[in-house]
Design goal:
mainly alpha; Methane Monooxygenase Hydroxylase, Chain G, domain 1
Length: 228
C-alpha cells in the first residue's frame, strides 16, 4: 500500500511539473513579445500559444481528478496531504495564469496607437518581467520547500499593485487631452486592461507562494499580514 501511495503522489508531482513548465513557456512567449515592443504576434506563435492553452486546460482537469482519487484511495499522511492540497491550489492558479497570457495576447492586437504604447513600453516591460519572475520563484519555493522565495514573491505583489495604479493615473491624463482620438482612447483602455491582466499574474504568483508556505509549514497565511 505504501508503494502505491508513494507512486501515486510522485505521479501527481511529475504531472504538475509538466503543467508548470508549459505555463512557464507561455509566460516566456508573453515576455518576449512585450519586451520586443512589437505589436505584431506571428501566426506561428499564436498557434503555438493556443495549442499550449488547450493542453493546460486538459492537464488541469486530469490532474485535479488524480489528486482527488489519490486522497480518497491512498489516504495520505498529513505531510503528504499538505503537499497534495498545495499542489491543487497552485494548479488552479496556473490555469488562470494561462488564461491571462491569452488575454494579453489578444490585447496586443487591439492597440492602434503605436506612440501611446511606446510611451508606456518600459513600464510594461518591467512589470511583465517582474510578474514572470514572481511565478518562477513561487514555483521554485514549492518544489524546493524554500520559504524565502515564497516570502520574496508575496512582498513583490505590492510593487505590482503600485505600478498598475500609477499607470492608470497616467493613462487618464493622456485621454483627457483635447486632441484625444478614438484610437487613442481605445488603445488607452486596452493598455489598462492589458496591465491589469499582467498584474493578476502577479496575484496568482502570490497565491502559489502562499500555497508553498502551507506545504512547507502547514500554516495558511491567506488573508493575513505576512510575518517572517
Amino acid at each position: 500500500m505504501t508503494i502505491k501511495k508513494d507512486e501515486a503522489i510522485q505521479s501527481i508531482l511529475d504531472d504538475f511539473e509538466k503543467l508548470a513548465n508549459i505555463v512557464l513557456e507561455q509566460l516566456d512567449y508573453m515576455e518576449h513579445f512585450i519586451t520586443s515592443g512589437d505589436l505584431f504576434v506571428s501566426d506561428e506563435v499564436l498557434t503555438f500559444i493556443y495549442k499550449n492553452e488547450e493542453q493546460i486546460d486538459k492537464m488541469e482537469v486530469k490532474l485535479s481528478d488524480k489528486i482527488v482519487k489519490t486522497i480518497v484511495l491512498q489516504k495520505p499522511v498529513a505531510s503528504d496531504l499538505r503537499k497534495i492540497m498545495s499542489c491543487y491550489r497552485i494548479l488552479i492558479n496556473l490555469e488562470r495564469i494561462g488564461d491571462r497570457v491569452i488575454n494579453v495576447t489578444k490585447f496586443i492586437h487591439k492597440i492602434k496607437a503605436q506612440d501611446l504604447y511606446e510611451g508606456f513600453h518600459e513600464v510594461f516591460t518591467n512589470t511583465t518581467m517582474l510578474s514572470v519572475n514572481m511565478v518562477r520563484k513561487a514555483l521554485l519555493a514549492f518544489s524546493n520547500d524554500d520559504k524565502e522565495l515564497a516570502i520574496w514573491t508575496i512582498k513583490n505583489d505590492d510593487i505590482m499593485d503600485e505600478i498598475n495604479a500609477k499607470l492608470l493615473k497616467k493613462l487618464v491624463k493622456k485621454v483627457n487631452l483635447e486632441d484625444t482620438t478614438k484610437n487613442l482612447l481605445t488603445s488607452a483602455i486596452t493598455l489598462k486592461e492589458m496591465m491589469s491582466n499582467i498584474e493578476r499574474i502577479g496575484d496568482y504568483a502570490t497565491n502559489i507562494a502562499e500555497a508553498a508556505i502551507y506545504s512547507i509549514e502547514g500554516r495558511d497565511i491567506r488573508h493575513q499580514t505576512l510575518e517572517e
